[in-house]
Write a structure and sequence with these properties.
Thrombin, subunit H; mainly beta; 2 helices; 2 domains; binds zinc ion; four-stranded antiparallel β-sheet; about 160 residues
Length: about 160
């Protein structure tokens, strides 16, 4: 059975930055494999494009340029927020505002955004809302372990059941 839309795909994979010599980001080998439903937007487009039409037992290695992965780095996503946004009970806890810390913020429409604190000033805090992998080319080594039909309830829920 080949990988195509609405198939459940189970893979071991290794992710490196840039190329086959790049820094290791994550690896599933020897741990729980990655399971996903193909073609429904669960995975980055460049990853799915390389796996389409492949079968269980195949191993593929490929590079995904940043624009087909987590997108280009957007300067507009680097935002200065007034320090008042970080007040709790009228006070800013500067011990808790550290460069490199990941934070979650809710916008007025209820959308949730993850960002990383870049700079802490007395009046403003600069937060980077880019994906941590934005602007980064990725290199995957993928071992395809299983390809099967997704069940109706898996397609309904948009995730793989054990
Ligand atoms: Zn479910």
């Amino acid at each position: 059975m080949i990988i195509e839309k609405n198939k459940v795909v189970v893979v071991d994979y290794k992710l490196q930055k840039d190329n086959a010599q790049g820094e290791l980001v994550e690896e599933t080998t020897g741990r729980d494999p990655l399971k996903f439903i193909f073609g429904i937007g669960m995975m980055i487009p460049g990853f799915e494009a390389e796996l389409e039409g492949k079968e269980a037992g195949e191993e593929v290695a490929f590079q995904v340029p940043s624009e087909d992965a987590y997108g280009e780095y957007q300067d507009e996503a680097l935002i200065d927020l007034a320090i008042q946004n970080f007040e709790v009970d009228g006070k800013v806890d500067f011990d808790n505002l550290k460069t490199g810390k990941m934070i979650t913020m809710q916008d007025t429409q209820g959308g949730v955004h993850h960002g990383m604190i870049k700079k802490v000033g007395l009046e403003q805090v600069q937060v980077d809302f880019n994906h941590p992998m934005a602007g980064q080319d990725l290199f995957f080594t993928v071992n395809i372990r299983e390809v099967r039909e997704a069940t109706e309830s898996e397609l309904d829920h948009g995730h793989v059941h054990e």
